[in-house]
Each structure stands twice: as structure tokens, then as C-alpha cells.
Design brief:
By secondary structure, the protein is α+β, with helices and mostly antiparallel strands. It has a single domain (17-262), classed as Jelly Rolls. 25% of the residues lie in helices and 20% in strands. It contains seven helices and nine strands; from the N terminus they run αβαααααββββββββα. It has helices spanning 17-26, 37-52, 55-64, 66-69, 80-86, 89-99, 237-246; strands at 28-31, 103-113, 120-123, 138-144, 154-157, 183-185, 192-197, 202-205, 216-225. A five-stranded antiparallel sheet has the order 1-7-4-9-2. α2 crosses α5. The longest helix has 16 residues, at 37-52. The protein is globular and about 45 Å long.
Length: 270
């Protein structure tokens, strides 16, 4: 059975002991319709701007060649709704329940994926080089603004695989092939969130037979349990954290959320 969280109108979303246990064992939770409708609408509009004006392309260029392109003119967290999403209180309270009260923001990615976007092979996103342990949690919150349905590519997860110590691409050679024990997540209402342990193997599986569906609005944000010096994925990570502090995205109640002391130096991928 796919684990779901029951929606609540309380400011703090607190999973039950059973849900905490399932997350520890399986590595993911599904939150149908988790985000408020108004926030989803504003995020969607910002995602359109992010893609259509070339800001996303500039952000990617800054990561690919930081010496030439420098800091992008706008970062995702400087878009008001995206900044609000990072510090969305129900999400932060949930993360606190899953990995303890002290955690740091790692990064945010936003996209409006084309209907014909290809699949993304099996991988995980736990930032550790080399991969040596799972002593501290890293969590990705995958936000599907329009939900998932028969017109979009699906999310596929491999429950329990976050307990393995493996390189990110250990299963990449399998492409997006069906694996024993996998769970396909392909029907979610708008504003739904899937919370993954970042070491959980997952894939984006394209529509079968070259079918053409619709745009897939997707935002992912990741957070790390305080402890080790985490590897940043954006070369301008110090600027990113400083802007988040300037914008007050921690609401003054999450003191570790944008603290640069929790990171190692950036190393450009080979």
C-alpha cells in the first residue's frame, strides 16, 4: 500500500508514529493536495516566467560554467512564491519530525517540463562523495503543481533502497526499466508533494509509446540534517544562502536553515 499523509489544517503537520516508521523503512511519503491552492497558482505563474524569460536557462548556464557566467540575475528563491515554498511552515514542521529540528536548506529547482520530456534513469540524489554511509538524513520535497495523471510522465520509486550505500548512478544503466518492488506514482491531485529520503532510488518514466501529454509543473527542494559538511550543488551557494537570509525566508524561527557553516566547498562535477 502506498503511504499517504492525512491532510490537516493545523500549522504543523505531524506524522503519526506509523508514518514515521514507514518513512524510515520505505524512504518516502505522499502528501496529496498538500500545498494551498493560492500558493500553487502563484508558483505556477512564476514557473512560466522562469522558463519563458530564459531565467532557468541562465541559472543552468551559471552552474555549467560559473567562471564565465557568474551568479544568475535571478535565483528561484528570489521569486516570491518560490521563496515562500522553501519556508512553508507545514513542510518545515514535517521535516523536523522526519530528521530532527536542526536542518539546513540545500537547493531548489523549478521547471515546466515539456510533454515529450524523456524519462530520467534510476538514480538517487544523496550528496556525498564518495558514498560511504547514511548516518544523516537528506530529504527532497518534490512538489507537483498540477499533480500527476495519465497525461504526464510518472514518478517511480524503489522502496527501501535508501538504506543501501550506493553511488547515485548505480542503477542508471537500467534506464527507466520496471524493477521488482517498485511503486509507480502517477495519479496525484494538484498541489501534491512527495517527500523522499534523498538516497532513495527513483526515476521519471515517460509516457508510453511516445504519447504526447501536457506540461508537467515541478518544483523540488532539498534539506539536510545538520551534522556533516554537505556538498553544495550550485557554485554560487553562499550568495544563495545569504539572499535567503536577507529575504527572511526562515521566518526567524529556523536558525540553521540558511547557515553556510553546514557546507563544504563547492566542487564542480567531473
Amino acid at each position: 500500500m502506498t503511504p499517504h499523509l492525512t491532510l490537516t489544517t493545523e500549522p504543523a503537520l505531524r506524522p503519526s508514529p506509523e508514518q514515521l516508521d514507514r518513512f524510515a523503512r520505505l524512504g518516502y511519503l505522499i502528501l496529496p493536495g498538500f500545498l494551498p491552492t493560492d500558493l500553487v497558482s502563484r508558483l505556477r505563474g512564476e514557473a512560466d516566467r522562469w522558463v519563458d524569460t530564459g531565467l532557468r536557462a541562465r541559472s543552468i548556464a551559471s552552474c555549467l560554467d560559473p567562471d564565465v557566467n557568474g551568479v544568475p540575475p535571478v535565483m528561484e528563491l528570489e521569486l516570491p512564491a518560490h521563496g515562500e515554498l522553501i519556508g512553508h511552515e507545514p513542510l518545515l514542521h514535517l521535516l523536523s519530525a522526519l530528521m530532527g529540528p536542526d536542518f539546513v536548506f540545500h537547493h531548489l529547482h523549478s521547471d515546466r517540463q515539456r510533454p515529450d520530456v524523456p524519462g530520467k534513469p534510476w538514480h538517487h540524489d544523496y550528496e556525498q562523495r564518495p558514498q560511504t554511509d547514511r548516518a544523516h538524513a537528506m530529504i527532497h520535497a518534490l512538489h507537483y503543481l498540477d499533480g500527476l495523471d495519465a497525461g504526464t510522465s510518472s514518478l517511480v520509486v524503489l522502496p527501501g533502497s535508501h538504506l543501501e550505500v550506493a553511488e547515485k548512478d548505480a542503477r542508471a544503466g537500467l534506464g527507466t526499466a520496471e524493477l521488482p518492488g517498485e511503486v509507480v506514482i502517477d495519479h496525484l491531485p494538484p498541489g501534491s508533494t512527495v517527500v523522499l529520503h534523498s538516497a532513495l532510488f527513483h526515476a521519471r518514466r515517460a509516457l508510453p509509446g511516445g504519447q504526447r501529454g501536457k506540461d508537467r509543473y515541478f518544483v523540488d527542494a532539498s534539506y539536510c540534517q545538520v551534522g556533516p559538511a554537505w556538498l553544495p550543488v550550485k557554485p554560487y551557494w553562499r550568495h544563495l544562502l545569504r539572499r535567503a537570509q536577507e529575504l527572511g525566508l526562515d521566518h526567524g524561527t529556523w536558525p540553521e536553515l540558511f547557515d553556510a557553516r553546514h557546507f563544504a566547498e563547492y566542487v564542480h562535477p567531473a
